[in-house]
Structures are given as structure tokens and as C-alpha cells.
Write a structure and sequence with these properties.
Structural class: alpha+beta
Mean pLDDT: 97
CATH topology: Pnp Oxidase, Chain A
Number of helices: 4
Largest sheet: 7 strands, antiparallel
CATH class: Mainly Beta
Strand order of the largest sheet: 2-1-5-6-7-4-3
Helix content: 25-40%
CATH superfamily: Electron Transport, Fmn-binding Protein, Chain A
CATH architecture: Roll
Number of strands: 7
Length: 138
């Protein structure tokens, strides 16, 4: 995929990403996340005290995988470092964007407000490596 094709793929519809992190005891952890893009950065929210929140605060690295599960099968993986923010204005903005994408514009503001609370983090995954392939079964 070209960069534009990758961004379009990641922005289309309501695809869920699978975020992989590492626990303190070095076991892997994977969890679905709703996400959006800011340029090439991937943004999502999580609770600071969730498994992924604790893992990201400790390691500050993650991998996100997003796929199309129907032929001809496309996927994108993004490895990188994360920046965490507890700034509630920032969380509100991006949680509202996420709400619009996944819940519909009519519920965006309510979703943003529900998630912009103390203990919620905005996560910005900055890509170090991207693999983006289209039509792998062609």
C-alpha cells in the first residue's frame, strides 16, 4: 500500500485495532482498541489502571494490527513508541473524534464526555515501523 492507501484503509469505517503490549512479567497482552489517525500517529484512549494502560506507562512501546478479514485480505501493523497524556481537554477532543467514528456523530459528544475523566489517558502511537499490505490473497 502507498502511504495514502494505508491512511485510507486505517480511516475507513469502524475497523478495530488489536493493540499488543508487554506485561511486567514479560507476558504478551493484546486488546481491541478503537483508534483514529493524526497524520501517521495513531490515537486511542484507555484507562490508566487497565492492563494496557499500566503496560504502556511502564514500557511506552506497542504494536497495533488492523486487518480486513475478507478477500483479498489487507492488513497494517504499526510498531512504535507511545506518548501518554492525562490532559482532559486533549482526551475530550480525541475521545469525541473516536465517538463520532465508532458511535456516530449524534453520540460523539456524549462519548467524549464519558471518556474525558480523571484516570483516562490519551495514547499517541508514533510509528517507528509500518507494514501495510493489500491484496495478500490475490
Amino acid at each position: 500500500m502507498s502511504d495514502d492507501e494505508r491512511r485510507a484503509f486505517l480511516s475507513a469505517g469502524t475497523r478495530t485495532g488489536i493493540l499488543s503490549t508487554v506485561r511486567a512479567d514479560r507476558r504478551p497482552h493484546a486488546a481491541p482498541v478503537w483508534f483514529t489517525l493524526d497524520g501517521d500517529d495513531v490515537l486511542f484512549t484507555t484507562g490508566a489502571d487497565t492492563v494496557k494502560g499500566r503496560n504502556l506507562r511502564r514500557e511506552e512501546r506497542a504494536v497495533l494490527a488492523v486487518d480486513e478479514s475478507t478477500p483479498p485480505f489487507d492488513f497494517v501493523t504499526i510498531e512504535g513508541s507511545v506518548e501518554l497524556s492525562a490532559d482532559l481537554d486533549e482526551v475530550l477532543h480525541w475521545a469525541t473524534v473516536l465517538g463520532g467514528r465508532y458511535m456516530g456523530q449524534h453520540r460523539a459528544a456524549a462519548f467524549g464526555a464519558r471518556n474525558a475523566v480523571p484516570g483516562e489517558l490519551l495514547v499517541r502511537l508514533r510509528p517507528d515501523k509500518i507494514v501495510a499490505l493489500a491484496g495478500i490473497a490475490d
